[in-house]
Design a protein that fits this description.
- It is a single chain.
- This protein has about 280 residues and is an alpha/beta fold.
- It has one domain: Rossmann fold, CATH 3.40.50.300.
- It has seven helices and eleven strands.
- Strands 5-6-7-3-8-9 form a six-stranded mixed beta sheet, with helices on both faces. A three-stranded antiparallel beta sheet has the order 2-1-4, with helices on one face. It has a two-stranded antiparallel sheet with strand order 10-11.
- Helix 5 links the parallel strand 6 and strand 7.
- Helix 2 crosses helix 3 and helix 2 packs parallel to helix 4.
- The longest helix has 17 residues.
- It is globular and about 55 Å long.
Length: about 280
């Protein structure tokens, strides 16, 4: 559970990113506490993935500062960060097993084949532990390219957790999944956050599958950001002020949020990729 008094896992202070002469966002501030499940939201092009990369030290700031686990972004701080980039494609003929993908997260920084011995046995045990953690035991020995999108995503999450990170960052992990798989992955991430004591930051296009699990949101728009609880941010008044144009947040009969207005805001499901991949 998040602690209001514990030092921040991620602290973003008055941060601005400029890429190719264009200001992606400016004067962004956010504080992420241990054990929180936080979503980064905003329309396409708002710079959600850029914020993750800035936290990783992969994108420089034009002004402001970011600290990660009490250190500057990148370098030694990243040893305690698990990162899952936007979904990649696996060819159906790829012979690599799902468990092998997880194993890359355990010892992928070492060259050559695993050498039998204590280290190899420990790595194999860690892979089994991770496979069980994400509920993938039934298909971890199958080729990764023959698995469904939801099954692949579980194994990639396991890979990102291999080094026991304190912070897990995921870039649109629900993208291209159907609604049942979105709900299942959201529930899995919430369980990991609370049972494994891992702080989770997720970029999302549709907030609804994760809404009930979130502690805090960072909503990017019009070059700036608003942070706070989901109820305190995802409402008509706050988003209208953020975007400088009338935005209306409606609650559907099933409890899902729908954001009406321009630019498009990520509080409703839209099938951008034609179903699960």
């Amino acid at each position: 559970m998040a602690s209001a008094t514990a030092p921040a896992v991620v602290e973003v202070r008055d941060a601005t990113v400029v890429l190719g002469g264009r200001t992606v966002w400016s004067r962004v501030g956010a504080s992420v506490r241990p054990g929180e499940f936080v979503a980064i939201l905003g329309p396409n092009g708002a710079g959600k993935s850029t914020l993750l990369k800035a936290i990783l030290g992969l994108v420089p700031l034009a002004r402001g500062s970011i600290s990660v686990l009490g250190r500057p972004p990148g370098g030694s701080a990243n040893h305690r960060v698990g990162y899952l980039p936007q979904r990649r494609s696996f060819g159906a003929a790829l012979p690599v097993r799902g468990a092998d993908v997880v194993r890359l997260g355990v010892d992928g920084d070492r060259w050559g084949l695993p050498v039998p011995g204590r280290r190899s046995r420990a790595a194999a045990a860690r892979v089994r532990e991770l496979v069980d953690l994400v509920g993938a035991r039934g298909y971890a020995d199958r080729p990764i390219g023959q698995l469904s999108g939801g099954e692949q995503q579980r194994l990639l999450i396991a890979q990102a957790l291999a080094r026991r990170p304190s912070l897990l960052m995921l870039d649109e992990p629900l993208d291209s999944l159907d609604l049942p798989n979105q709900a299942a992955i959201a529930a899995l991430l919430s369980r990991i956050c609370h049972t494994e004591a891992v702080t989770v930051m997720i970029v999302a296009h549709d907030v609804n599958p994760i809404l009930s699990y979130l502690d805090r949101v960072v909503y990017l728009g019009s070059g700036g950001a608003v942070t706070g609880t989901p109820a305190g941010v995802i409402n008509s008044a706050t988003l209208t002020a953020l975007y400088g144009t009338p935005i209306e947040v409606l609650t559907a009969s099933d409890g899902r949020l729908v954001v009406v207005g321009q630019p498009e805001a990520p509080a409703h499901h839209s099938d951008r990729h034609g179903g699960e991949r």
